[in-house]
Structures are given as structure tokens and as C-alpha cells.
Write a structure and sequence with these properties.
heterodimer, A: 78 residues, alpha+beta, Eukaryotic RPB6 RNA polymerase subunit, 4 strands, globular, B: 853 residues, Barwin-like endoglucanases, Enzyme I, Chain A, domain 2, six-stranded mixed beta sheet, four-stranded antiparallel beta sheet, 30 strands, 15% strand
Chain lengths: 78, 853
């Protein structure tokens, strides 16, 4: 898959969170990784940004009501 | 029955093993006979008394308990030949495909097996059972087409399932006996990879050798009026099974030819299959002698009338009433008129105390036949006594502290009122009871909107809460005033409607009263504080005197004119639907925000009545002459219509000359259609404008649509001038004959008239051709409605079921019952819609209010 898909204007920003950042998020919402929304390892964006299973992905979406809204998903292999 | 109270630690699912079936049985059923000559159940028959009691007075032979105490006991029959269980065919197929046909091992080498088992365990631990099952499916699929057994190297043949229950290995038919022997060879370790725990589920148990007979308590027989016994469908079916089974046994023992044995075997298979499921495709359903299909096990459980949706998910209650609804604008919004006849039946339990003893005694004294009386007295030990003429005296004497009486509902008792379908929370609201004569529930027309009801025969349900807690909850959380604002978009779902809107409009726009009239009008709507009016009172003043003295409001009318209220005085503009209407009444929204729900509802109900009562002084009606148009207007309209028809002709001519400008992405025909539609729509709008301008301010129709009470200029255009283009699926009508809509037109005629343009109006009358086109769209919309309603209902049901346990947690995340996060911030902005205005919060407005201007 090519990097070009990241440039599509309908694709929100995906970034891999570092261990510490991920830990912070889990703590903030008081959740385990199993309780977070999932994203597949096969997902094109995940392939391009090179995330591994168990990584926490931060997606910054544009929102009509609050300008930007963060969303977190855990990479799973299934 | 003995109750067992224990916590459930875990549940495991498995198949019945023959051993277990025998163990849990108390009877071996050997004969299809039910009763002997005396009508007594036969030992070893299907109604054996050891299977449980269904007749009152008898005791169970197995457990010794009485009817309703004994849960019933299973029996079993020994099948002469193994039988395939219809619900297990898929699992059986999976097993046949994933194991070796010769050695019975799984088609995985030992190393692979170990690897896969480990990964399964890992998946179960990390992602749960759902994903484990998915993985197992994958493994089974990967084993399907292997050609060689990795253990004994035997060549594998593809196994097929010939629906509904015959298995083929290549071209060879597999009998249940063969399948069973194959399955017995599968070692325990190999079954685990296919998701079985061999302790509870061995593959060979998938093939039935013993059949459990359910207890008689789940298939009770009914004694008819004639004294004849009528057996349950299941008993009939089991009788068939036992009978054929016996014959099969006899034939096998007598050494009958194989054809006969096989025939009987197939018949037994048929009976067992239909016993489990009588709606299997390709298998004719077993029927009664009357030709009606039997209701066997699967049908008992499945679908809307099945055990789940009907008995377990369906709830039935007492203390409820249902009848037709009708309007009563004189009762309050949060009242419901209850017919006296219903008040005799519905009761509220009230505990006798020192302070209410005398009062409650009066209720008992009046008894059940005199309103407001009392139907039952409950003693402290829980014994319920009905009050009758005989028991009345004694109960009255007996009544003392600690007793509970069930007295008739009276005015101001709280009740829960509901109209199905209960699509949103405003479909169920709490009202105060008001006992009224006649036989229908009465409700204020303003609460039609939240219930989505009208009075064309709608019925509604009423429930009486029976505990203090329930009553308090209903009163505090469910009353009409708590539901003023809809959580859909934060606007007021209850507002003024119809005459009330036109009334307030006229009142604030043009009406003038003398002092006496003004005072009377205000008093009639319940305003007690009446200001000192001058001798001539403007409608605006009257409207203002309903509002609180410190009310400030700036808003717009429907036509974008300013409405300004300062210090509770309407100083500019007039009131219309945009201020007080349903789901758009900004004034009401502001009242609610500034003064709270109770005041808002009170004021709203006053404004509602003010509008109606104001109209009484003027009178409001409409007639045919209100849609009469002046001669010069008519001429202008006629010319417009003629022009547009010429315009369309011109378009068609250019099209025929192939000179029409083709729109991007469209064919020439499509472009033409679009341009014609545009021209025709334009003309109708223009006609609307002309008519709108020509209307007198006093015209009742204009008042109605200008105030936002009902209708639009379009409706008026349709009556006064022309109905307009009839369209099917967004296109002009083109159905009927080849190239034309009706045989009186020429082939290929694209003129407005031949394609469903109705140039006459309803008042003048429409001609047969136009009427026909009108009927076409009418029928289409009727069909559309009839087909769409159940579809969208089902869609909504699925949506509601899927979302029912989502909730906003204290940290503003949306989570389901497992506390899995669905949204990290509710709606991405964590705005509570019911506290917003149309889903947003107007900061500018807030600032203006805080700094005062």
C-alpha cells in the first residue's frame, strides 16, 4: 500500500501512540485494551503507518460540532 | 416446589450422552398407548404417571409432590436404529470433513494440532469466545479439501450433505450407524480443536440412540367439554415415534428383508426430525388429521409467538386500562380524563394509619359499587379480602392500623399514560387523573405531539403505579412538564397548535378589546393578576399580561420580522408559530430556560387557551369565497400558464431538432425532462407568489399559513389555481401505453398535459385526464406508506435493540454494558441535546444575556 492514501482529504490523521502515551490514555479512561474500539492489522492505514498488534492508534477526526475530536483504537490481528 | 438459591459460577454447554439421558430419566417408554380401558395412564406409555402430574389432586409417583409443585420428570426411549438430529447436521458435516475417513484422527499432524490448540487458547483468553468460534470456523474450512490423512496417509473423499439429512462420502451414502462408528474413533484430544469439551460433548453423541421424552408437564392434555381427552401436539408426535420405533424393533428381530427395515428406519428418521422441527425445508410438515401442521419443539421457541419473544420478553401487567382517546382542551396538559367506569376497576393501595383511618373507613363503607369506594382489604398477613355486601360490615369493623385497602382512583392520583408504538421517551408520561363521565380517555390536544396520537380511533393505555416509590418516581421524573423539551433536538415538543396559533397571531397583530372584554378574556384562561387596563385594550397588552413581569425575549417571526419582549411586555412584532409552535417555539424555550418547567408549562397552557378564547371574540372560519381570485389575477395566472406551456413546447421543438443543450452527465432525454420540470415548477411557484401578494390580510387561509398554524401557500395555490405536476419516482408520469400515458394522446407526446401536469385547481375542478394522473400519484403514495411503515418499524426495532445498553458515563464517554468505549466524548462535543437549542449552544446569545444587551 502506498503512502499516498494518507494524503486523501477524507482520511483523518492516524498516529501510533508511544507506550507512555498509550498508558496515559488507558489510565485516563480507566480501561483495558480489550475495552477499546479495535482496528484491524489488515487495515490499509495501519499497514502504511506500520503499526503492530497491540498498538494504540490515535485518530484525530474533524468534527462539525467540536472542530477536532480524538478517537483511540487498538490494533488487533484476527 | 423446592426452590434452590445459589449463585451461578459457570455454565457449560454440551450434548446429551446416552448415559446422561438414562440417568436423568425415570421412565423407559415402550408403548405408544396412552391410557388403558379405564382411562388410566399406561405404565411405560407416554403419559406414564412417573413423568409428572397434570391432574389436580394427584401426587407424582417419582417425587411425591402435587400439581404445580412437581416440575415433571424425563423419560427415554431406546431407538431401534441410530437417528440423525436435524439441528446437528451442520456439526456432523464439520466433523466428517475434518477427520480422516479411516483412522478417525483430525486432518492435522500432531505438531500442527498442538500449535493450533495453543493459538485457540490464546485467542480465547485475549479476545473471548466469539473470536475463538470464528477461528474454529476457519480451521474447519481449511481442513475441508485436504486429500490425504497426515496420520494414516489414507486418501480423503469429499463429504457432502444432501439436504436435509443424508450424508454422502463421495458417491457412497453414509448411514447414521456408519457415521456413529466413525465418530467413536475420534480421540478426545482431536475434538478439542473443533471446540468441544470431550467431557460434555463427544461427537458420537450427535447421533441419537436414545431419545429423551419430555415430562408431561410441558405437553399437558386438555379435557374437552365432551369429556374427551385431547393430547398436545408433542404427545402426538412422540406417539408416532414410539409406534414406528416398536415396529422397527419387531421387524429387525423377526429378520425382515432389508428394504422393509430401511423404509421403517427412514420413517422413524422423519418422525424424529419433525418432532424437533416441523418447518424444515424439503420435509413435508407433519399434520393433524384436520390438515393443520403440528407445533413441535422448534416452533415453540422460535419467532414472535415463541417462548422468547412472547413469554419471556413479553410482559403483562395488572392495574392497567385501555380505551379510545378524545380531546378536551379544558383539562390541564398534565391531566388525563379517566372514565368513571374505569375508576371502579383501577385501585391504589393505601395503608391504614392513625391519621387516615377515618377517611379510609369511608371508602370501605362505600364498597366496590359506589364511587369513590374500595374493592379489596388486605390484612397484615397478606390475605386479600374482596368487599361484598356480605363481608362489608365485618371488614369495616376489622379495619385497623397496618391494614391496606385498595381504594378506587380519585382525582389527582398519578397515572402513567402511554401510546404505542413507544418510540421515544415522551410516549410514556405521567398524568394526574381527572375522573370524567363517558367512556373515553380525555387528553389535552397539546400533548398529541409527544404521543404522536390523533383522535381518529386511537387507543391508549393507562397504568396505576402501586407503591409509594413508583408514584414518587412517576411524579418527579415522568410528568408532562418534565418532557417539555425533546431530547431529539432540544426544542419544545409541546406547544400551541392550530387555532391557538392563529388566535395568538390575530390577538397580537390586530385585535382590540374594551376593558371588560379584556378582563373577562384573561380571567377565563386562569390569569388572576389583572393589570389596570385603559378603556381600549390592545391584544398585545393582553398577551403581555400573561407573561412574567421580568421576561426578556428577542426573537424572529416566521417571516423574519423582529419580536421583542422587554420587562414582560410585547413591544414589537407579533406572535406566530416560530414563537409558540411545536418544535419551533423559541419563546417557550426561553420561558422554560428562565423560569423552569413548571412555570413554563403553566404559562404555555395559559397561552394555549388565550389563543383559543381570543378567537371566540372574533370568530374564525373559512369558506370557498376565501379562495376566489380577482379577475386581473386570474388573467395573469392564465398568461403565466400559457407562457410556460409555450416554453415547454419550445424546449420540445429544440429537442426534436437535436439542438437542445445537453446537461453534464445526462442524456438528451434526461436534460429535456429536467428542463421541462424546472419550467413547470417555476410557474407554480410564480403563481403562488402572485396569489400570496393578492391576498387580503384578513383572509382566513392567509392567517392560517402566515401564522404557521396550518397549511402553506402551496396548498392555497392547489385549491385556487392549479394542482401542478404529478410525479412518480421523481419523474413525470410516463406509464401506460407504448410511448404515451393514455390512448387519447399521440405517441411521443411530451406536452405537460399528457405527462401529468394538472393545470386546473381543486376549486374549478379537475378534468378526467388530470384526475387519472392525480389518482396515480395518490395510489403510489398509499402503497409506499403501506410498505414503508412496517419496514421502518423493523429497522427501528433492530436499532433500538442494538443501542439499548449504551449510556453516557460520568467521564462523558459512551459505553456499552461491558464498559467498552463506543465514543470517547458523547457526540464528540459532550453537549446534552436536551439542554441545548437545536443541538448547539448559542454562545453569542448567552453573552448578550449575561452582560445585559
Amino acid at each position: 500500500m502506498e503512502e499516498i492514501i494518507l494524503k486523501h482529504r477524507f482520511l483523518p490523521k492516524h498516529e501510533i501512540l508511544s507506550e507512555e502515551e498509550a498508558e496515559k490514555i488507558l489510565k485516563k479512561y480507566n480501561v483495558s485494551k480489550r475495552q477499546l474500539p479495535k482496528i484491524r492489522l489488515k487495515d490499509p492505514v495501519i499497514k502504511v503507518i506500520g503499526a503492530k498488534e497491540g498498538d494504540l492508534i490515535k485518530i484525530t477526526r474533524k468534527s462539525p460540532t467540536s472542530k477536532e475530536s480524538p478517537y483511540y483504537r487498538v490494533v488487533v490481528d484476527e | 416446589m423446592e426452590h434452590v438459591y445459589k449463585n451461578i459460577n459457570s455454565i457449560s454447554f454440551g450434548f446429551f450422552s446416552p448415559k446422561l439421558i438414562k440417568k436423568m430419566s425415570s421412565v423407559k417408554v415402550v408403548t405408544p398407548e396412552l391410557y388403558d380401558k379405564e382411562g388410566y395412564p399406561v405404565d411405560g406409555g407416554l403419559m406414564d404417571i412417573r413423568l409428572g402430574v397434570i391432574d389436580p389432586g394427584l401426587r407424582c409417583k417419582t417425587c411425591g409432590s402435587k400439581l404445580k409443585e412437581c416440575p415433571g420428570h424425563f423419560g427415554y426411549i431406546e431407538l431401534a436404529r441410530p437417528i440423525i438430529h436435524i439441528q446437528y447436521t451442520k456439526t456432523i458435516l464439520d466433523f466428517l470433513r475434518s477427520t480422516c475417513k479411516d483412522c478417525g484422527r483430525i486432518l492435522l499432524s500432531d505438531e500442527e494440532l498442538k500449535l493450533k490448540l495453543d493459538s485457540l487458547k490464546d485467542i480465547e483468553k485475549r479476545y473471548g469466545l466469539f473470536f475463538k468460534r470464528k477461528k474454529i470456523k476457519e480451521i474447519i474450512n481449511s481442513l475441508k479439501n485436504l486429500k490425504k490423512c497426515p496420520h494414516c496417509k489414507a486418501k480423503q473423499v469429499n463429504v457432502k450433505l444432501e439436504r436435509p439429512l443424508t450424508f454422502f462420502e463421495g458417491d457412497k451414502k453414509l448411514s447414521p450407524i456408519e457415521i456413529k462408528t466413525k465418530f467413536e474413533k475420534i480421540p478426545d484430544e482431536d475434538t478439542e480443536i473443533l471446540g468441544l469439551n470431550p467431557k460434555y460433548a463427544r461427537p458420537e453423541w450427535l447421533i441419537l440412540t436414545l431419545l429423551p421424552i419430555p415430562p408431561v408437564t410441558m405437553r399437558p392434555s386438555i379435557t374437552l367439554d365432551t369429556g374427551e381427552r385431547s393430547e398436545d401436539d408433542l404427545t402426538h408426535k412422540l406417539g408416532d415415534i414410539v409406534r414406528i420405533n416398536q415396529r422397527l424393533f419387531e421387524n429387525i428381530n423377526a429378520g425382515a428383508p432389508e428394504v422393509i427395515v430401511d423404509d421403517l428406519w427412514d420413517l422413524l428418521q422423519y418422525h424424529v426430525t419433525t418432532y424437533f422441527d416441523n418447518t424444515v425445508a424439503q420435509i413435508p410438515p407433519a399434520r393433524h388429521r384436520s390438515g393443520q401442521a403440528l407445533k413441535t419443539l422448534t416452533e415453540r421457541v422460535k419467532s414472535k409467538e415463541g417462548r422468547f419473544r412472547y413469554n419471556l420478553a413479553g410482559k403483562r401487567v395488572n392495574f392497567a386500562a385501555r380505551t379510545v382517546i378524545s380531546p378536551d382542551p379544558e383539562i390541564k396538559f398534565n391531566e388525563v380524563g379517566v372514565p368513571k367506569a374505569i375508576a371502579y376497576e383501577l385501585t391504589v393501595p393505601e395503608r391504614v394509619t392513625e391519621w387516615n383511618l377515618e377517611r379510609l373507613k369511608e371508602f370501605v363503607k362505600r364498597g366496590p359499587k359506589k364511587y369513590p369506594g374500595c374493592n379489596y382489604v388486605i390484612r397484615p398477613d397478606g390475605k386479600k379480602k374482596k368487599i361484598t355486601d356480605e363481608t362489608k360490615e365485618q371488614l369495616l369493623e376489622e379495619l385497623q392500623l397496618g391494614y391496606v385497602i385498595e381504594r378506587h382512583i380519585i382525582n389527582n392520583d398519578i397515572a402513567i399514560f402511554n401510546r404505542q408504538p413507544s418510540l421515544h421517551r415522551m410516549s410514556i408520561m405521567a398524568h394526574k387523573i381527572k375522573i370524567l363521565p363517558y367512556k373515553s380517555f380525555r387528553l389535552n390536544p397539546a400533548v398529541c405531539t409527544p404521543y404522536a396520537g390523533d383522535f381518529d380511533g386511537d387507543e391508549m393505555n393507562l397504568h396505576i403505579p402501586q407503591t409509594e416509590e413508583a408514584r414518587a418516581e412517576a411524579e418527579v421524573l415522568m410528568q408532562v412538564q418534565t418532557q417539555l423539551i425533546t431530547p431529539k433536538n432540544g426544542t419544545n415538543i409541546i406547544g400551541c397548535l392550530e387555532d391557538s396559533v392563529s388566535g395568538n397571531y390575530l390577538l397580537t397583530k390586530s385585535m382590540v378589546f374594551n376593558k371588560d372584554e379584556a378582563v373577562q378574556l384573561l380571567f377565563s384562561i386562569g390569569v388572576k393578576k389583572i393589570p389596570n387596563f385603559n378603556n381600549v385594550v390592545e391584544g398585545k397588552e393582553i398577551f403581555s399580561s400573561v407573561l412574567p413581569g421580568d421576561f426578556e425575549y428577542i426573537g424572529k417571526t416566521k417571516d423574519n420580522d423582529d419580536v421583542i419582549i422587554k420587562k414582560g411586555k410585547l413591544i414589537k412584532g407579533y406572535i406566530d408559530g416560530a414563537s409558540i409552535g411545536e418544535e419551533r417555539g423559541n419563546l417557550i424555550r426561553k420561558l422554560h430556560r428562565d423560569y423552569g418547567e413548571d412555570v413554563a408549562l403553566d404559562l404555555l397552557s395559559k397561552l394555549f387557551r388565550l389563543g383559543i378564547k381570543a378567537l371566540f371574540y372574533k370568530g374564525f372560519s373559512t369558506s370557498l369565497k376565501d379562495i376566489d381570485l380577482k379577475q386581473d389575477i386570474l388573467i395573469r395566472i392564465r398568461k403565466l400558464l400559457k407562457d410556460s406551456e409555450d416554453g415547454v413546447d419550445e424546449l420540445i421543438k429544440t429537442y426534436n431538432a437535436k439542438k437542445l443543450e445537453i446537461l453534464p452527465g445526462k442524456t438528451a432525454e434526461e436534460s429535456l425532462e429536467l428542463l421541462i420540470l424546472q419550467t413547470l415548477n417555476k410557474v407554480r411557484n410564480k403563481i403562488g407568489e402572485i396569489i400570496g401578494e393578492s391576498l387580503n390580510e384578513e383572509n382566513p387561509l392567509r392567517i392560517m399559513f402566515h401564522s404557521g398554524a396550518k397549511g402553506s401557500i402551496l396548498n392555497l395555490t392547489m385549491m385556487a389555481s392549479s394542482v401542478g405536476q404529478q410525479a412518480l419516482r421523481g419523474k413525470r408520469i410516463r406509464h401506460g401505453y407504448d410511448g404515451r400515458t393514455l390512448s387519447l394522446f399521440k405517441k411521443g407526446d411530451l406536452s405537460p398535459r399528457s405527462r401529468g401536469f394538472i393545470s386546473s385547481g381543486f376549486k374549478k375542478g379537475i378534468d378526467p385526464v388530470e384526475f387519472f394522473f392525480g389518482s396515480m400519484t395518490g395510489r403510489d403514495s398509499l402503497m409506499d406508506m403501506a410498505l414503508r411503515t412496517p419496514k421502518s418499524g423493523y429497522l427501528y426495532r433492530r436499532l433500538a435493540n442494538a443501542l439499548q445498553d449504551l449510556k453516557v458515563e460520568y467521564d462523558y464517554t459512551v459505553r456499552d454494558a461491558n464498559k467498552t468505549v463506543i465514543q470517547f466524548k458523547y457526540g464528540e462535543d459532550s453537549i446534552d441535546v436536551s439542554k441545548s437549542e437545536k443541538g448547539t449552544i448559542d454562545i453569542r446569545n448567552l453573552i448578550r444575556e449575561v452582560i445585559g444587551k
